[in-house]
Amino acid sequence: MFDRCCRVVAIGLLVAAGLAHRVCAQVSEEGHFRLHKFLQAIGDERYRVTQDGGVFTLSDSFAFTDRGSRVPLRAMLRFGRDHTPLAFAVHGRSSRSSTLDDSVTIAGGIAMVQVDSSHSTALTLGQHEAAFTIAGYAPVAIQQELIRFWLAHGRPATIRALPSGNTIRITARGRDTVRVGDTTVVLQRFAVTGLIWGRESLWMDDAGVLVALVSTDAE
Q1: What is the pTM of this model?
Q2: What is the DSSP string of 117-185?
Q3: What is d(CA 219, CA 203) in angstroms, rounded to the nearest whole number?
Q4: Which is nearest to 52 in space by CA: 18, 17, 28?
Q5: What distance in Å separates the CA atoms of residue 44 and residue 33, rounded to the nearest whole number?
Q6: For residue 161, what are the CA distances in angstroms to 33, 39, 130?
Q7: pLDDT digits (tens, 9 = 90+) for 158-205
Q8: Could you tell me if 167 and 160 are in contact, meaning their C-beta atoms sit under 8 angstroms apart?
């Protein structure tokens, strides 16, 4: 078991800094992100990945308080060994004004998409189409899996986001050296476009662990 602590400063942006990550002999994973907005720590996200045969399930609890309003979000992602998504569900809010209640299941090249628990659509995925289940910047752990999916599938030029249908593009932007306490750490920086309005910046370590993310919420 090992812990990481990283502090990131950004004005007017939502920042998620990876604080802890543990991998055990049973190939389960746990992580903790601290959420910042306007230079203030406003909340936390915790996730856990469990394995059942070749299928992994990520369970996530995300919450922060913004100007007196609590913003909670829960999500589940089920995926295979190569990070290909099999099922996804998200419920709650990602900002004071944004409500999510979506789910996606994928089998046999067909994605069953349900938005706001009312409108269901069956989408046919192309044989060689890269598709990933994600609903905006939160939860952060889902973005970690997005980058892992992209790397595991040969860095495809585009990824189809489900349920939105948006086209995501990921770019490797080089390596940055940062100080974490008394330790110097070299991180890989990535840019993500198409997921939200504008561009996100993410930093991963050499073990494929998300250390920090700078994003914007719906406000």
Answers
A1: 0.85
A2: TTEEEEEEPPTT--EEEE-SS-SHHHHHHHHHHHHHTT--S-EEEEET-PEEEEEEEEEEEEEETTEEE
A3: 23
A4: 28
A5: 6
A6: 23, 30, 9
A7: 999 999 889 999 999 999 999 888 989 899 999 999 998 889 999 999
A8: yes
